[in-house]
Amino acid sequence: MxxxxxxxxxxxxxxxxxxxxxxxxxHNERWYQQPLAQVMTVKxxxxxxxxxxxxxxxxxxxxxLTFKMLNGKHRGQVxxxxxxxxxxxxxxxxFFKGQKVFVNLEKNQNKTYVTISNYKRDTYxxxxxxxxxAMTYLVARFKGMLALLxxxxxFIIFLLCVQIDVHYNIDHIFGLFSMSALVFLAxxxxxxxxxxxxxxxxxxxxxxxxxxxxxIGIIALALTNNQGIHYEALDFATQSPKQLFMSxxxxxxxxxxxxxxxxxVSTLFELKRxxxxxxxxxxxxxxxxxxxxxxxxxxNVLLLIxxxxxxxxxxxxxxxxxxxxxxxEWTMSLGVVQALISGIGITLVIPSASALSA
Amino acid sequence: MSSILLLTIILAxxxxxxxxxxxxxxxxxxxxxxxxxxxxxxxxxxxxxxxxVTIFAGxxxxxxxxxxxxxxxKTTNVAFxxxxxxxxxxxxxxxxxxxxxxxxxxxxxxxxxxxxxNLLIGINFESITISxxxxxxxxxxxxxxxxxxxxxxxxxxQNPNMTLAQLYxxxxxxxxxxxxxxxxxxxxxxxxxxLALFILIAKMxxxxxxxxxSKIFVSESIEVLxxxxxxxxxxxxxxxxMGRRIKNKELIQK
Lengths: 358, 254
Known about the structure:
The complex is a heterodimer of chains A (about 350) and B (about 250). Chain A is an alpha+beta fold. Chain A has eight helices and six strands. Chain B has about 250 residues and is an all-alpha fold. Helices cover about 85% and strands about 0% of the residues of chain B. In chain B, helix 3 runs antiparallel to helix 9 and helix 5 (about 125-160) packs antiparallel against helix 6. The longest helix of chain B is centred in the N-terminal third of the chain and has 44 residues, at about 5-45. Chain B: InterPro entries: UCP031503_TM, YibE_F.
């Protein structure tokens, strides 16, 4: 009965914390310096049908809105504003009564009106983070929280490296992010398996697998003169897109290689513990066997992550009269290259992990 | 020769060298998944409902990932069912959530890339965002399911008299390890993909409020968070389904 009581207490605390986050983020206007307003009334126009040169039909609707200011010196005052939304909603959205938005106040001929700058999304983001933490705790208790902690720490290191890059305007970002990848690796492995011989073996096999894959990838790209690859198609690129792409590939590759290597190394260490007479050759073989069965699914995991990033852009390219080949080269080829290099890394870490543990 | 072709050949050769026949089969499962994804993109572009396409493509992707790499029928079936149920639940959560959070389509940060396009293309970007979230997570969900199922199956074989309580206990242990590793795979995969975005945000000297509210940051985070929730769900689901097999066996013995 004692456990049951504790369980009820925990559930109550979790639900209460969720409600608290919800309530606070619904009433946190004062946190923000940018003017925040709530939609009070909405009047929609008749939808207009549009058609572009590729015979894509869409609908546009104009909205006349009034906003009540929620913070700043205009707090409580009501101003008008307009919005347009479409059926497809590529970069617009329909507003409803009660929604909160970040706005700019503008004056035109003594009339003040509101232009919408950004929708308020903090409640949704924080509620989802809360849901993940609550679920992890309920399922895996403190050990689960440790897994989240390792991810959180990596995220902070990652952001620090980004800050270093921006602050010092580093030319060799590939070098910087490869170094940070090593730190991620050492830290995550230490949290999952602790610092011991197994850590060293896992670390070195991942290091060998990842570097070999990157070297093969870079040589292959150089040999073929990057034919069919457009680094300039990389989204959000503000620095040398090729180096950015390579850094992204190293970081993306690392997680999956880590997954494969820890599986193999921990199985082999377990085998060595249960049977100390086991031969090196036998161990190497078992390692290969474990590797074979996880190789396919892991490469698929990465293919899906990298490929789907470009999906919305690819649909936009297709719908606006671009050919299959052109769309592939400009939207999907980078993701495919990342998946291929990662696949090579996952494959190479199998023999390197097996050999090092044996 | 194009770079992608050369890299594909290198991958095929390496996978065959390391994995033998099984490696070659795995290579073809990756190739097949690529074809399924490509066809899915074309079908969505033609104007077929993105969510409908995702459901069919998703089933095909899960099936190739699970069945083409493993031949243990007992475990693969459990993994398949657990994955499909988890994706179903995920879909039910995502559809209303994405609508409320309004994270569809492109963000102001992308305006340079999309300024040449007329965005009124008659395809609902909200459904496309939902498709992206489901498709990108699918592989990780299937991989976690198969790892838990085969791990538990191994234990059940070594210890045939295992009770349900013991199984759930082991399920939690194995599940925790797999969860930690899968979180890493997912987060690294997605951090890697968003590297350029993070640099851009840092260059804008964004405030904390930007991170909590901007369309692009929130939508990328929501994708990662939903994926992680789905991973936890599928681990619990797989353990439960494997447990039902023990229960059935006990009933038969009685």
